[in-house]
């Protein structure tokens, strides 16, 4: 902590533990203080908050451990009775609620992708609590054995889908460049496929042709397959993660393995009619439920803390998996057709399931394709805009000029074809160059030079109309394309640009000095001859504007020189356009910039021919 900055920063060890980074305690570490006494007081608040948070987490863990021990004691001491059933179901519900609350606490202390991770885990436990409530209805309200098949089994099965979706988010890593809409459709496809498998293999033996043995075996196999997928995914994330997340996934893997094993043993006992509420099969299951609270408490200490270094998320082939799941439907259907021991009513039910699933999946795939097409179109637009925009200043670049200038020129020529529309329909080119910009780079560095360019861009933009186009022509040179403008007002526009760019009261602040700059400007209007608009090509007019800039630079800087045609002019400029040279009789108009030591009266030229360079971008 330092009193000079009046800000208290969490020490690294506190950030590493994830305590001071939590949202409810962050105010103690990031609040400002006046003087060292206030800073010390802030550090004390942060330390006290850390101690309180650690105490709360330990207390939560102790309560969960006590509930588990009481559950074991009840199994040992209470004989099989309604009281044992009540104790067993009540403890299981409390342990599930504990897991739900700890995941919700993680949601409140997380941001972005991590928040979605914990939300999906909380959703999974909410579904499991609903299934537990249905189980308790049979045990405690109806006071009869839970039937097998059990109506709530589908909830227990589907509760693993949000867990799998949460793991696929890979919250330990920087997110893959992906869209939320794509992930939503991928999740729905995955959920639909697992639901289809449940409807296809399990539901027929529960409602269509009741067969407890086939129901139990198919449920165990399908649920076991999903559990294996979860464990493999957790193992993969465990191997790919680093630091605290590696320990988190290790604990998560252990908890998932424990609940998978205990649930499998309990289901086998249910199928063999050995199970009763409060039996020994519930002891490992209760311990597994408690372990998920510990996983959540472990995550709670790092939910709002960003790791010092994140790895890049592995791009999982979810789209290919979704397509494979869709293609698996006819294969499974063909297997059913060739199977001879399937009752007719079951086969018809499965055909309906396949048709309905194909329709829904096709709809999701179509929706996903539309999303991808729209996102691809948007990405192409972004890329196109980026290719036409200067990355430093944010204005258009020369590629934009090349792509649009022919259309602008054609529109101006069409307006001159109608005399009543030609007034105020000129296309005026202003070539602007910052004065002595190289000295700014040499003295202050390129970083300050870039800031000067950005600031000059803002000032030039404020001096022109919204319909005018500002283009970074090259280096410190800009081109303004003023469309549907009047050449009679060009001098006023040039004066406004000189004034705003050279404003001495708005210099760019630097550590050592105020950096001020001025600009020089040359302009010319297209068409060159209003009475004969198509005689002089646009490239020549652009070159004449560039020559005006050269004249302004040569004769003092911080001024604007306008070039226009004249029958009795004293200057002759040879412009190069399309590889051909032409001589133009011109007149010039000089506009002085602000705080200029020499006026435009000093601007004189000797009659004669002056060679004009081609209208290209200035060399950087």
What features would you describe in this structure?
There is one protein chain. With 620 residues, the chain is an alpha/beta fold. The protein has 3 domains: 1-77; 78-170 and 180-382, Rhopdopsin 7-helix transmembrane proteins (Up-down Bundle); 403-611, Alpha-Beta Plaits. Helices cover 60% and strands 11% of the residues. It contains 19 helices and 12 strands. The chain has helices spanning 12-17, 26-30, 35-77, 82-108, 112-141, 153-158, 160-168, 180-201, 204-208, 212-240, 243-271, 282-300, 318-338, 344-387, 398-417, 437-444, 446-463, 490-501, 538-554, and strands at residues 173-174, 311-312, 426-434, 469-474, 477-485, 508-509, 514-515, 519-526, 559-565, 571-577, 580-592, 608-611. The strands form 3 sheets. Strands 4-5-3-8-9-11-10-12 form an 8-stranded mixed sheet, with helices on both faces. A two-stranded parallel ribbon has the order 1-2. β4 and β5 form a beta hairpin. α5 (112-141) runs antiparallel to α7 and α17 (446-463) runs antiparallel to α18. The radius of gyration is 38 Å and the shape is elongated. Residues 1-37, 304-309 and 604-620 have low confidence and may be disordered.
